[in-house]
Amino acid sequence: MRVKAINKLGLGYDAVAALNPEIIYCAATGFGEGGTHAGQPAFDDVIQGACGLANLVGHEAGRPEYPPMLLADKVAGIATANAVLGAMVHKLRTGQGQYVEVPMFETMVAFTMTEHLGGHGFHPPIGPAGYARLLKGGRKPTPTKDGYLALLPYTENHWNAFFSALGRKDLFEKYDLSNRHERNKRIHELYDDLRSVTANFTSAELMELCRKLDIPVTEIYSIDNIHEHPHVQSVGLFEPFDHPTEGELVVMRPTALFGKTPSRITRHAPNIGEDTNELLQAAGFSKDFIAKAQAPG
Asked: What GO molecular-function term can you cite, just one (predicted)?
């Protein structure tokens, strides 16, 4: 909800803080309230387009593309949780609540540009933006004789061992892989050579080799079969959960593992409005105020 709209409802920070000065109040906005686009409507697609992500995803095809997930929503959600935790640390130390704002647009610009500032990380710029090793012609899933792998020789020793084991020591000698900067200048050519070699071997052969050489590698899973991943199954990531109105669901347990305070899902996903009264009362609003706010008209 936009700040102006929630203020009209009498639920803005000033109104809430007057009732509970120690509250931590977080507004997750589309665009920061201090900027030119403050108050503009913003959904995941809009933010992906505005922050440079859609252009980045589609750069090789020559047209912007959205990644097929609600990436901006999820990243902004994580940033919001982190911001609230920071405010909670401050409150534990001082007893003070505060207003926190997490703008989705600024969050996603920072998320996208962290590795892609490139030459724009200097003033004046010393080159174009973008991390060349990840851009056009760079890292991609590696083709094999019968499919694809995510395979990444990274160090000089990795490249030497990998090319040597496959009978292509000449490719290791072709590049100055001891010099990271020289290697990155020819990274697209290097990856082209890598793909030309791996296409002659099966995925199973390359998996076995990479495991032996301690080179990072994995089969490529899909959203349809990720639940079959042996590690996913061994750690019980997907769990059954009984919902009071929707029946038996499959949920993902919390992934963070705490030694002293193990986490688990204790409440079902609420239906629309199910927790409204509880949340408003926790914020300090009286039952009379809540009843009036919910009254028709």
From this structure: CoA-transferase activity
